[in-house]
Request: fold
Amino acid sequence: MDHATTPAPVPFADPTALGLIGLAVGCASLVPVALGFAVTPAALETAAWFCLLFGGGCQLVAGLLSFANRNALGGTLLTAFSFNWFLNGHVLLRLVEGVAPDPAVGLAVDVTFLLVFAVMTYAFGFYSSLLFAFLLDIDVLYACRIATALTGTTALTLPIVATTVLLGILALWLAFAGLVNPAAGRAVFPVPGPLFHPRA
Reply:
């Protein structure tokens, strides 16, 4: 056997489901805030800690373990997105203190994130059309955030909430597929194949 071509074993179990569950919990914590149902200091602080511990913490752990498993694409996405969740938590905690984030800085970062996620959307299309849809939902979310920042409109509040809810649902579906399907030996949570195929 040619040991030079034998793939190195990965040291950890696939951590993607952990990151996706953390993402779903973070999304759930933001929905009542975005809808205006939970805007008291206690509600904002509660949402902040869910963003920090689940959105940020779970995705950071999953991202670093993905890198350890030689998964650069998943590791990059999960780790970069984890810091975005840490920022969400920080912003909510500062809002409790009456300090709002600077809109110009937020807009510049959102534009950068949209560019990053648009490219990653294409890359994940080579693995699954559902992963493509998952990343596309993030693209739409950021596009709505950018449009809101540029126009000052509140008309996109419901689309932002809807894409956040859909993001959480897709994250849970993908997480359950990664956890349940191997245990069941069948596709209890089906995940379709690639949308794109690499050039031969």
Q: What stands out?
A: Helices lie at 16-34, 41-68, 72-96, 103-124, 129-151, 157-184. The chain has six helices and no strands. The radius of gyration is 18 Å.
